[in-house]
């Protein structure tokens, strides 16, 4: 994926970060998201609709 020129060009045009995230980093992100208090998560969900 990181060597596909068309993919990288489209990602750049859409301003999408395609930097790989490794397992320890992903685990930390998921744990942080799961630690979000439910009322806050619900409020954020409503704001994003």
In percent, how much strand structure appears in the residues?
Answer: under 5%
Q: List how many beta strands DSSP finds.
A: 0
Radius of gyration of CA atoms, rounded to a whole number? 15 Å
C-alpha termini separation: 30 Å
Shape: flat
Which helices and strands appear, and what pairs or packs with what?
Layout: H1 5-13, H2 23-34, H3 38-47
Give a structural overview.
The protein is 63% helix and 0% strand. The chain has one domain (5-47). It has helices at 5-13, 23-34, 38-47. The relative contact order is 0.09. By secondary structure, it is mainly alpha-helical. The protein has 3 helices and no strands.
Summed up:
This protein has 49 residues and is an all-alpha fold. The chain has helices at residues 5-13, 23-34, 38-47.
Defining traits:
about 50 residues, mainly alpha, flat
């Amino acid at each position: 994926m990181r060597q596909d020129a068309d993919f990288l060009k489209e990602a750049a045009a859409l301003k999408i970060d395609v930097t790989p995230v490794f397992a320890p980093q992903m685990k930390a992100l998921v744990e942080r998201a799961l630690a979000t208090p439910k009322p806050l998560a619900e409020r954020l969900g409503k704001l994003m609709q």
